[in-house]
Specification:
The protein is mainly α and 160 residues long. The protein has one domain. The protein is 62% helix and 0% strand. The N and C termini lie far apart (45 Å).
């Protein structure tokens, strides 16, 4: 039972092969996700300007997610593997710690956005309008997915 999928063959889709356009497509897709996340929360902030409906301190999650986006993508995969980074602040170990802290901030922002959505907009007996909570959650989810697409959707082979 341990190798029952070893002989399964999937046909390869040639329409997904991006070749030299892979980095451009990943960057555009990541940018669209990032832009959409911030657009949604700005829309909620303009529609619900009252602090009772949308506490503007909830923007903190989006700022932390944006910081995590930059932390995750500031180190290359070569630095993580130790191929192109041997000196500096702790070398390869420092790059790995930086990436780990970036992922921690990203997950923390997403968890905090979930807590804001359910704690303040879904569970209370007389909840305020739910769109601001949904917008905060979607913002953080889209920024996190944007960071993943930008980090793992590109290839360093095409940087030369």
């Amino acid at each position: 039972m341990s190798g029952f999928l070893d002989n399964c063959q999937c046909s390869r889709c040639d329409c997904i092969e991006l070749g030299e356009r892979r980095n451009a497509v990943a960057a555009v897709a990541s940018g669209i996700l990032f832009f959409t996340g911030w657009w949604l929360v700005i829309d909620a902030a303009t529609m619900y300007q009252n602090q009772a409906d949308f506490n503007h301190a909830y923007h903190t999650c989006g700022v932390i997610a944006t910081l995590a986006f930059f932390m995750i993508n500031s180190v290359s995969n070569g630095q993580i593997r130790g191929e192109s980074y041997t000196t500096g602040c702790m070398g390869q170990t420092g790059a790995r710690i930086w990436l780990f802290l970036g992922f921690l901030l990203g997950f923390g922002a997403l968890i905090a956005a979930s807590w804001i959505l359910f704690g303040f907009y879904v569970v209370p007996p007389n909840p305020p309008p739910q769109w601001p909570g949904i917008a905060v959650f979607l913002q953080n989810a889209l920024i996190f997915f944007s960071a993943l697409v930008f980090k793992f959707g590109r290839t360093e082979d095409l940087w030369g």
